[in-house]
Amino acid sequence: MTNAGSRLLNAAREMREIARGETKPAHIHVPPDVDVRAIRRQLGLSQDAFASEFCFSINQIRDWEQRRTRPIDSNRAYLLLIERHSDLVRRMLDELRAKSSCEDDLDVAI
User: Fold this and answer.
1) 64 in the same domain as 80
2) I need a surface site. Which of 51, 71, 85, 87 has the fewest CB within 10 A?
3) What end-to-end distance do the CA atoms of the chain give, in Å?
4) Is 54 in contact with 89 (CB distance < 8 Å)?
5) Burial letters for 21-60: b for 16+ Cβ neighbours within 10 Å, e otherwise?
């Protein structure tokens, strides 16, 4: 058997084990490209609102949507989370903002 054939068989075995819950994936696949405009539109947000709500700069959003640049790996992974679990991401960010606001209030009081 060729080296490529062995790798394919090992990958198939690993996928079966993952599907059965016998093992965890070795890594998460992040696609090389993410359609930022489609994600933003799916959520019904303007570029400004999307950038503000999910902690991006407006320039990042514009550059990604106009294909001048593309998001780095961590931003692509974050964008996929936003696309698939926007409510959860929003709740988490709201909690962080509330906690940060409370800490800011404490700093001012001291």
Assistant:
1) yes
2) 87
3) 71
4) yes
5) eeeeeeeeebeeebebeebbeeeebebeebbebbebeeee
DSSP 44: T
Give the range of the structural domain holding residue 53, as residue numbers without chain letter. Answer: 35-109
CATH code for the domain of 103: 1.10.260.40
- The number of CA neighbours under 13 Å toward the Cβ of 100 is 6
Structural domain total, the chain = 2
Question: pLDDT tens across 12-69, in order?
Answer: 888 788 778 888 776 667 788 899 999 999 999 999 999 999 999 999 999 999 999 9
Half-sphere exposure of 88 (CA within 13 A, CB side): 8
Between vectors from CA 51 to CA 45 and to CA 53, what angle results, nearest 5°? 75
- Is the same domain home to 10 and 63? no
* pLDDT at residue 2 tops 60: yes
Residues 60, 51 contacting (CB under 8 angstroms):
yes
